[in-house]
Amino acid sequence: MYEMLIVDDERYAAEGICNCHDWASLGIGHVHTAFSAEEARTLLTERAIAILICDIEMPDEDGLSLVRWVKDHCPHTESLFLTCHSEFDYAKQAFQLKSFDYLLKPVDSEELANVVAQMIKAIQGRAEKARSAELVQQYESLWSKQQPKLAERFWQDLLARRILTFDDFLERALKDARLALSPDAHVLPILIHVEEWLRPFAGRDLEMMRYAVQKAAEELLLAGAGQQGQVVTDRGGQLFVMVYEQRPFVHESAAVAEQWEATCRSFVTSCKELFYCRINCYVGYFAPLHDMPGLCDGLKELQHTHVGKTSPVLVYSAEMDAAHGEKEKNSFVQQTIQFIKDNVEEDISRDDVAAHVGLNPAYLSRLFKKETGVNLIDYLIETKMNRAKQLLDTTDMTVSMIAQQVGYSNFSHFTRMFRKRFEANPQEYRKQ
After folding, report:
1. Does the record carry Metal-binding as a key word (predicted)?
2. Domains 184-316 and 327-431 share a fold
């Protein structure tokens, strides 16, 4: 319920307005009266007055002066002027003070009630806007706190190959993570590895020092270098700085490598002085998002094979990455083939194979097709059918038993797959 204040030096006029309408029906819980500007100021200070109805002509201080004071001290109060004179100067000043309306005395009670109802709607609308603005501010605050977590999860999933990078899958993943990156953006990854702590840290102290190194990477390698990016820990616990290319991508490998080598050397020195640790940095190169998993794996392999410790900063070249990529692809394909052969008599699917080698099923299918020329599902079926043929040749097992032996609970489906592979159903093949 709202509170309303009527200010008029004529007592009967103020009381007449109090009694001219059922104000409670409009949501007004209490109607106050004041017979001077000074008395009105006291009430306005003590009470949360939503609506002020004020006579302009008063002997000690006019209503215009009072409303000027109200605008400074009670900005949420809506004002309505009453006057006996239809003078243009009064109307002009009333509108300059942004009063809600200007009515002539004697005021019609129905007209006054309609104006007050409009004033209440205006107050409610303003309150609703304020609530909306407050909610937006709250959501923005929550977003700002949540966004780094979403971004880190995106990078963890991308580096673990859990995000598809073809069609619009990557674009949707970026949108879900609220990252201001386009799917064709280029990123430079830097692997940061703590080789040695120069003072004994354990428990909480060690966690705090690791956190300090991560924050220092944000400040020195990103903010201090005027770069946008994200510092993330992958699912294996490795710390990466992902530097976003802000300008249209131009391949300047030599210049970029020199710049980041110098920046990382300064970072290494700071970590030694501030956090008592010896850091090694493995600097990649700007590459498309879909190349990040392989490139970051290459950086991790470089870190594992960096035994000479001749330099705290090593730059990983595209040529090294290409060699690693071929090795990595061959390794995944060989693991896939071996897993299928080892589990040919199990009810395994493409997802089971992908889970075993640690790749996204769709990504593994594309990789397998590219490297072998055969669809992964077709290879899985062919391996099972070859095993079924072997069992038909070498055992007295029934066809239904052989179907179950190679992971087919649906006998009709097994028969169709066998016929497709050998142009004869299992019974016909055995007779032949």
Report:
1. no
2. no
* Average pLDDT value for residue range 225-254: 80
Render pLDDT for 65-117 as a digit per residue (tens, 0 to 9). 888 888 888 888 888 887 776 655 555 565 555 665 667 778 888 888 888 89
pLDDT at 308: 46
The CATH class of 184-316 is: alpha beta
Residue 177: HSE in the Cβ half-sphere, 13 Å Cα cutoff: 24
Domain ranges in the chain are 2-128, 184-316, 327-431
As a whole number of angstroms, the distance between CA 183 and CA 204 comes to 39
Q: Is domain 327-431 given the CATH code 1.10.10.60 in the classification?
A: yes
Contact 1, 30 (CB under 8 A): yes
CATH topology of domain 2-128: Rossmann fold (3.40.50)
Of 113-127, 194-208, 246-260, give the lowest mean pLDDT range. 246-260
The predicted structure's pLDDT at residue 111: 87
Give the number of C-alpha atoms closer than 13 A to the C-alpha of residue 134, restricted to the C-beta side: 6
Global pTM value: 0.51
What is each CA distance from 251 to 247, 282, 324, 416, in whole angstroms?
11, 19, 21, 53
Classify strands 239-244 and 229-233 as parallel, antiparallel or unpaired: antiparallel
Those residues with Cβ within 8 angstroms of residue 18's Cβ, 6 or more apart along the chain or in another chain? 6, 31, 33
Burial status of residue 103 (CB atoms within 10 A of its CB: 0-12, 13-18, 19 or more): middle
